[in-house]
Amino acid sequence: MGRKWWSGLSLLIAAMVLMPMVSSGVRQVTAQETAALIVNNDAAANPNLVQAAVGAAGDAQSPGSSLMVPEGFTVTVIASGLSAPRFMVFDRDGSLLVADQAAGAVYRYGPNAETVIEPSGETPEPLIADLDAPSSLAFFDVEGTTYLYVGEESQITRFTYGDGGEVGDGEVVVPDLPTGGHQTRTVAFGEDGMLYVAIGSSCNICNEDDDRRATVMRYNADGSDGQRFAWGLRNAVGLAFEPGTNTLWATVNERDNQGNEVPPDLVTIVTEGANYGWPDCQPPDATPQEEGADCSGITPPTIGIQAHSAPLGLTFSTGGQFPEAYQGGIFVVQHGSWNRQPPAEPKLMYITFEDGAPTAVTDFARGWQDENGDRWGRPAGVVVAPDGSLIVSDDTAGVLYRIAYDG
């Protein structure tokens, strides 16, 4: 395929997205086992979304009046007053931990039977403060000790974590990460017990001096023996392991200033030793960035979505609260473009699977942007709550939403 990759495929995909289909069971596919699924914004449109008021619990404040979601779903602001909340994780007690990038802090919200967390209009006292632009969190047990890992821009730090949110002193396990440019450092643990860290590029298109840039790195849990797991990923932001497998998925923000529709942003399986093309080759078909570039051996992405849409957080739909049509797939946050005209809108998307392969990308929640391109919020992270609802962070409005199904 050439650069007009969207025109023919979008018509095919548009027919597929009207009725989401999900297959159950564990999938173990690799990027090489299926052709790339390429879906632009028009193809992902979901005509079945309905307007839902954005409520607020307790003294939390809602930044907007309504969103478009599937029928039967509700949207409630359960926390406000944050600076730039990004990725989140629940602890064993059902408390929600939130990495606030702008505040340099991790906050902890205690559980609540009705709203998942105790609703709040102000940030609690920081669980951990004075961090370097924290953007992600992960729990992992080492020899009976639970650690909270924090992805900071310049390092990965872990803290012992006890019942009731007791946090010990920080231990830097991965120091001296490259800084500048893309600054998120996402941490995730695989079934293999290894620590995976996403490190974005320092630029839009360039040859990096540090080979950790534009990669997913892999380390032992103590931060030792760091190795490049995969590369050519301009800015991998979200990382998630497929439940019950060691299959790693990532959202990737591809290069800018190539045109409105070129190249697609990615939601892709990341395999060991694979090169995904940046900076020399553009997805989805490894088109040379410049004449003479060697684009042989490039691994194609699993899914391509709207160019410049900035996918961030992703999570597998593992809860039982939602209807069957929204179980077994992947929820992906689209942060929205900064340089596209018209702007790609912020929204939440759902990827359905059939027979182990992705079949459709469908809008799940939208409405943060009006017809003029003005925005009142931008979702960033997403996590499945213990009760099966979704918690979505908004790093522009400084709030947390709960999306639940009430039937």
Question: Can you tell me about this structure?
Answer:
- The chain has 407 residues and is mostly beta strands.
- It has a 6-stranded mixed beta sheet with strand order 3-2-4-30-29-28, with no helix packed on it. Strands 1-23-20-19-18 form a 5-stranded mixed beta sheet.
- The protein is globular and about 60 Å long.
- The protein has 2 helices and 30 strands.
- The chain has a single domain (5-405), classed as 6 Propeller (Neuraminidase), CATH 2.120.10.
Beta-strand fraction estimate:
35-45%
What is the assigned CATH homologous superfamily? TolB, C-terminal domain
**In terms of structural class, how would the helical and strand content be classed?**
mainly beta
CATH class: Mainly Beta
Order of strands side by side in the largest beta sheet? Answer: 3-2-4-30-29-28
> How many structurally independent domains?
1
> How many alpha or pi helices?
2
Q: Provide the helix percentage.
A: under 10%
CATH architecture: 6 Propeller
Q: Kindly state the mean pLDDT as a whole number?
A: 92
What is the β-strand count? 30
Give start-end ranges of low-pLDDT stretches: 1-33
Main sheet summary: 6 strands, mixed
Shape: globular
CATH fold name, please? Neuraminidase
